[in-house]
Amino acid sequence: MEKMIHPATTIGHVHLIVSNLSRSIRFYCEMIGFQILKQERSIVTLTVDGITPLLVLEEQADAVLKPRGTTGLYHFAILVPDRASLARSLLHLLQKGYPLQGASDHQFSEAVYLADPDGNGIEIYADRPKNEWERTENGEYKGVTKPLDVNGLLVEVGNTPWSGLPSGTRIGHVHLHVANIQEADEFYRNGLGFEATIRMENHALFVSAGGYHHHIGLNTWAGIGAPKPPENAVGLRLFSILLPNQNELKKVAEQLKNIGVTFELAKQTIFVKDPSGNQIQLKVKVKE
């Protein structure tokens, strides 16, 4: 239990490399519903509440598409606070005619899938009440993928119009392509201290803090031994993990040392890459 990450740990923000910043801003504000928090020359920070950064977009002039069969982002997941909010997001996308890649019922959540103009995967989802999440005989959550009851969901829209992502929206999880599940297991469980919640044979692993269904998904669907994408590829620059206090940050640092992982510690923030090259920022959550 000493290695277990603090149950209050959450995902913070996601930082993406994009090829056309203006185009990406339009997409994420007009289609998804973010607001601009801060904008510099080639970087914009997006929010929902006007305070909390959730998504950072950085334009890279020589950006190339992320090659198939490489590690990196599979999708990042935007967690909306309730089913009605998900319904309004879905209806908005349908009315705008934006192409969807899927719509699924995972038993513990309902989700809609799409990609941004650079092909970065996005999930918008709402959780079911935790007391409805089903477990298997070994204590893990049942990971299922069934077709979403779209008509049943859209009934939840009611007379409330879409007005962007609602208050309470956050980044619920990040799902990554990795080269090796065993190496990822060692890093995310023994290094960072997450708990395994769903295993799919030897090709996918889902881990979480505090009994959540998953904060991080890991898969080898791009191929076992998949290489890293080029440095100038669009996709994930990094994502952040928020810890509740400084002692928890120190604990994670010690655990990473114990498994032989090198990292950078700067301004009370850990920067580390997983074995597949996915960069993570661990920091203490700012108290509101």
From TrEMBL:
InterPro entries: Glyas_Bleomycin-R_OHBP_Dase, Glyas_Fos-R_dOase_dom, VOC_core. Residues 10-127, 170-285 form the VOC domain. CDD domains: VOC_BsCatE_like_C (cd16359), VOC_BsCatE_like_N (cd07255). Its EC number is 1.13.11.2. Gene3D superfamilies: 2,3-Dihydroxybiphenyl 1,2-Dioxygenase, domain 1 (3.10.180.10). One of its GO terms (molecular function) is catechol 2,3-dioxygenase activity. It is an enzyme of class 1 (oxidoreductase). Keywords: Dioxygenase, Oxidoreductase. The keyword Cell membrane does not apply. Pfam families: Glyoxalase. Coiled coil: none annotated. The keyword Metal-binding does not apply. This is Catechol 2,3-dioxygenase.
